[in-house]
Write a structure and sequence with these properties.
The protein has helices spanning 13-26, 39-46, 50-62, 86-94, 118-131, 146-160, 174-186, 201-209, 254-267, 290-293, 324-335, 340-351, 354-380, 406-414, 445-459, and strands at 66-69, 73-76, 104-105, 169-172, 192-197, 213-220, 223-224, 237-240, 270-274, 298-303, 315-318, 385-387, 394-398, 417-418, 420-421, 435-439. The protein is of the alpha/beta class and 463 residues long. The chain has three domains: 13-81, Arc Repressor Mutant, subunit A (Orthogonal Bundle); 84-118 and 356-459, Aspartate Aminotransferase, domain 1; 119-353, Aspartate Aminotransferase, domain 2, CATH 3.40.640.10. An eight-stranded mixed beta sheet has the order 4-11-10-9-8-5-6-7, with helices on both faces. Strand 5 (192-197), helix 8 (201-209) and strand 6 (213-220) form a beta-alpha-beta unit. The two termini are 29 Å apart. The structure holds pyridoxal-5'-phosphate. Pyridoxal-5'-phosphate binds at residues 109, 174-176, 200, 241, 246, 274, 276, 303, 305, 310, 315.
């Protein structure tokens, strides 16, 4: 039985063993009914004291993971395997390499891939494949499944207070295609496009791709600095992430939201509201959307990449009424329509309540990961500054005196850590060189602890 126990780890030996043993049981790598090595043999194998093993076995017995049978030993309790780990187990036994990459994944915007609700999803999928009418396998309308659009409208009303007509929604292949669609539909060459600086690099490139003239607007601790917007201009586009600025994590205060809407009204402009991860808010209640304040001025963009899986490639855009027909036409010429079967599966998955259940479960997981990450960063780097509100799937950390240039980022990657700097997304370069974006969606607490310790060693020149 393989465990990685490190003596110079910041975690106590018992905790390391506890976490790893628990993970193996939940993933089905050690199955219900299996007998564990005796405390003596486990201690010898790992080179740790027997008391440590006894402590872990007792704790996990109290938690219900293990059972002790007098004279027979310690066994894994039946039925502990987590539903969504079941398939992973068969992948593991076929080809261990496919199980998970060896990297510690601090990339932003990745949800917990191992927690995708495979069992429930495949049940719904089986039903859709087996019982749908033949028409579903033919060409569809460019707007996407009407069933999904209705379900999304109801979902947005429940969780974001958005009131919208399903006829204003277009289903896209992720938010990325929603931006592409909007760029093609409303950004002609020379059109002024205001964007936050920093902004996701790919989104900026899409917005300039149809000839838009990109104008960066600085972001401060509260998000886009609305007082930097000029007033002597007409018909502009303004792209914002008001619920959780990417990557700096600010939540745009109410006053600035009002100012944005006023700007759009006075200058006859359109706002693109990218609401990519607002379901994950860890304290307080979310602000209402810009779309709710001014549906005729705002194009609202949402995605299922963060709350479910980016592999589904399902996002959506809500268009103001006067722009919808043109946008539908653009979608037709982009790819006719996004793949329909996954749309119908998703519609049923949401309608049966599975999505909200999954999001609630994930929110707890991410909150724990976030707290663990911040705790460990502050412990290892007392000078560090943590940036970003308590929401989403990432934080930014500023390391005084460090420059994360390409060479240093390469060393970090070569040591098994996937992470990006803020500077990559900055338009005006130089301001964020000491800042890293730590995604905490696709890593567990042990990986977070290991990853932070590894970064410390690298920065101290010990790797
Ligand atoms: C701020 C932001 N918006 C939108 C997206 C796009 O997500 P997708 O195209 O997977 O829906 C991303 C991707 O990471 C992002 O960072």
């Amino acid at each position: 039985m393989w465990f990685e126990i490190e003596r110079d780890h910041s975690l106590p030996l018992s905790w390391q063993l506890h976490l790893q043993l628990k993970e193996k049981i939940l993933k089905g790598m050690i199955v219900g009914g299996q007998r564990l090595p005796s405390t003596r043999s486990m201690a010898e194998q790992l080179g740790i004291s027997r008391n440590t093993v006894v402590e872990v076995y007792e704790q996990m017995t109290a938690e219900g993971y293990l059972q002790t049978k007098l004279g027979a030993g310690t066994f894994v309790t039946d039925g502990i395997l987590l539903d969504n780990f079941r398939l992973e187990k068969s992948v593991m036994t076929c080809n261990r390499k496919e199980e998970k990459s060896d990297y510690i994944d601090f990339r932003s915007g990745f949800p917990a891939l191992a927690s995708f609700p495979r069992m429930v999803w495949s049940k719904v999928a089986k039903d859709v494949y087996e019982s749908s009418a033949a028409d579903l396998f033919g060409y569809q309308e460019p707007q996407g499944s009407e069933e999904l659009r209705q379900v999304i409208a109801a979902y947005l009303y429940r969780i974001r207070g958005i009131e919208c007509d399903p006829a204003s929604i277009i289903i896209t292949s992720g938010a990325t295609q929603a931006f592409q669609l909007v760029a093609k539909a409303i950004i002609e060459p020379g059109r002024v496009v205001y964007v936050e600086d920093p902004i996701t690099k790919e989104i900026r490139e899409i917005l300039s791709g149809t000839g838009g003239s990109i104008h960066p607007i600085a972001v401060d601790k509260d998000g886009l600095t609305t007082n930097s917007l000029p007033r002597n201009i007409q018909h502009t586009i303004l792209s914002v992430t008001p619920s959780h600025h990417f990557p700096l994590g600010a939540i745009l205060p109410a006053q600035r939201r009002i100012e944005l809407i006023q700007f759009a009204e006075e200058t006859d402009s359109i706002i693109l509201e990218d609401d990519y991860d607002s379901e994950f808010r860890y304290n307080g209640i979310p602000f209402s959307t810009l779309y709710s304040l001014a549906p005729h001025r705002v194009v609202y963009i949402g995605t299922f990449s963060k709350i479910l899986s980016p592999a589904l490639r399902i996002g959506y855009v809500i268009m103001p009424k006067h722009l919808i027909n043109n946008a539908i036409q653009v979608k037709r010429y982009l790819d006719y329509h996004s793949p329909i079967l996954n749309q119908v599966i998703l519609a049923r998955f949401i309608a049966k309540g599975h999505l909200e259940k999954h999001v609630n479960k994930m929110r707890k997981l991410y909150k724990g990961n976030r707290e663990c990450l911040i705790r460990n960063l502050q412990k290892n780097f007392p000078e560090i500054r943590i940036i970003g509100s308590s929401s989403g799937l990432h934080i930014v950390a500023a390391f005084p005196g460090i420059e994360f240039n390409e060479k240093l980022l390469k060393v970090i990657k070569e040591n098994g850590i996937l992470i990006q700097g803020v500077e990559r997304h900055a338009i005006n370069k130089g301001k964020y060189a000491n800042q890293l974006i730590f995604g905490y969606g696709n890593c567990n607490e042990l990986e977070i602890i290991r990853g932070v310790a590894l970064i410390k060693k690298i920065l101290e020149g010990k790797m």
